[in-house]
Design a protein that fits this description.
The chain has about 170 residues and is an alpha+beta fold. It is built from four helices and five strands.
Length: about 170
């Protein structure tokens, strides 16, 4: 059976490449390791034992782990550095909130303490902003901002989706 699998499927040139290889190549590595193990019984060479052991470990690792993912899955939020652009978005979000809410719920901008971004058709930002409410009480606010730029990098759209107070400080 092992010989049949080995002849019908391609075997990668190096066994170390089996981890990221497609499933068919990983099966071929397993088949080759089994064949090699059978040959060890016939020839008691130290080299064959070491090679077969390495082949089995590589094959088992490849079969269990599958291909590795180095990057986060698409669609999720990732932490961002709070740079000048992000600070500007935070200031804009507070101004926009104050404009939309009227004088009853004005917030004074302090600083952006954390930012998260999500790539969509544009960019979604979750901005965590320290500020003070109209009574002067400090608090942390979450501003959800959508930004879209045209192909030349010029901002086309800026929208405040949500602005809520998260924590009340005493």
């Amino acid at each position: 059976m092992a010989a049949l699998i080995n002849t019908t499927l391609s075997v990668p040139s190096s066994l170390t490449g089996a981890v990221g290889a497609p499933r068919r190549s990983r099966l071929a590595v397993v088949a080759r390791a089994v064949r090699c193990h059978e040959q060890v019984g016939q020839e008691s060479s130290r080299r064959a034992v070491v090679f077969c052991g390495a082949a089995m470990v590589t094959a088992l690792t490849a079969a269990v782990s599958g291909p590795a993912r180095a990057e986060p899955l698409a669609g999720g939020y990732v932490d961002m550095v709070v740079d000048d652009h992000v600070r500007g978005l935070g200031e804009w979000a507070v101004r926009q909130h104050n404009k939309e809410s009227g004088e009853k719920d004005d917030v004074q901008f302090g600083k952006v303490v954390k930012a998260q971004g999500q790539v969509v058709n544009g960019m979604n930002y979750n901005l965590f902003i320290d500020g003070k409410d109209s009574r002067g009480a400090p608090g942390t606010y979450l501003a959800e901002v959508y930004e879209k730029a045209n192909g030349a990098g010029v901002q086309e759209t800026l929208k405040l989706n949500e602005f809520v107070r998260l924590l009340k400080s005493s």
